[in-house]
Design brief:
GO terms for molecular function: nicotianamine synthase activity. Belongs to the nicotianamine synthase (NAS)-like family. Keywords: S-adenosyl-L-methionine, Transferase. InterPro entries: Nicotian_synth, SAM-dependent_MTases_sf. It is a single chain. The protein is α/β, with parallel strands linked by helices. The chain has a domain at 143-341: Vaccinia Virus protein VP39 (Rossmann fold, 3-Layer(aba) Sandwich). The protein has twelve helices and seven strands. It has helices at 3-9, 53-70, 79-92, 98-105, 108-137, 144-152, 157-175, 192-204, 208-212, 223-235, 273-285, 314-317, and strands at residues 181-185, 215-220, 243-247, 262-265, 292-297, 320-326, 335-341. Strands 3-2-1-4-5-7-6 form a seven-stranded mixed beta sheet, covered by helices on one side. Strand 2, helix 10 and strand 3 form a beta-alpha-beta unit. Helix 2 packs antiparallel against helix 3, helix 2 runs parallel beside helix 4 (98-105) and helix 2 packs across helix 5. It starts with a helix and ends with a strand.
Amino acid sequence: MGLTKLCLRLPWPRHRTRKASVVKSSPYDSQDSITIAEKPQYTGQPGNELTSERAGAICNKITETYSELLKLANYEPGEQINKLLGDLVPLCTQNLDREVVQQIVQSARVQEILPPLRDICSQAESCFESYSAAKIIGDGKDDPKTALERAKSFRYYSNYVELAWLELCGIQAAGRETPKRIAFIGSGPLPLTSLCLLQELKKEADNESDAQGIKVLNVDCDQAAIDISRAMCHAVGDWSKGMEFLCAEAGSPEVDLTEYDVVYMAALVGVSQEKKEEITLKVVNSMRPGSLLVVRSAAGIRTCLYIEFDIATDRLLEKLEPCLTLHPHNEVVNSVIIARVKI
């Protein structure tokens, strides 16, 4: 059964959404920590801005949350950061009037804090994913069935599945065929997206032989992230068969992407438009013509959490043919951009 049939039977999300590169609140503590060496000074001055009452209130909440985040010693999961980010994420994923959104994202107060606020969210997300992967692994003595049960009972697991369905339908619409090999750049310590893609593609395989040929390569520049994600896949046993791992910089010569039908770039790959564009060009140069690039981005007020990536710059348009962009209107943070490498 092809992905066309998958799209036809896809149950559209019913208020359940994946933690798509987002940190949610969670009542746990961790012994590990990432110490914050430097914190930028934030004046918190309102400035002379013409905003609606609602936009002003949201700007106040965003800047107040940022000020509280700066006071934390580290960004490991814990009561304080869970509460702060647990309030910030819904604030930045609500549906708002376009004019209100523009007033918020163009606010001088918000613009001042965006780069360091995104950096905090990035660090906190990494800590959360490492903790969650360690919980799935357990003490290393459990059988794969028990570890798999822990993975599927992860509070956002069903949301990962739904997002994988949505992205695969977009890939099918752009590529006209079911991918067999996917590379995920910036896979991080919790490779649930890759695992969900792997499982969905195996379900769509025509036979067992085709299913065994499906591969997902996880690439990350952090060796610790690769180690824990590999350990998690080992813990769940045959369910992860087809997962491969490589510690390397995105776009580096050792990452040969010519054999992959689809290449993902995580939202955290590249901290600015310029940097992300440079990495994207390197990645595309190592892909084969006709293959698809999937880039996670953000739009509207969600750009308070992740940068918005413009795929239609002159340099990128020389190499890529943009196909479609998916913007969420639920709790999912990341937009999805799909483009084809020019032949």
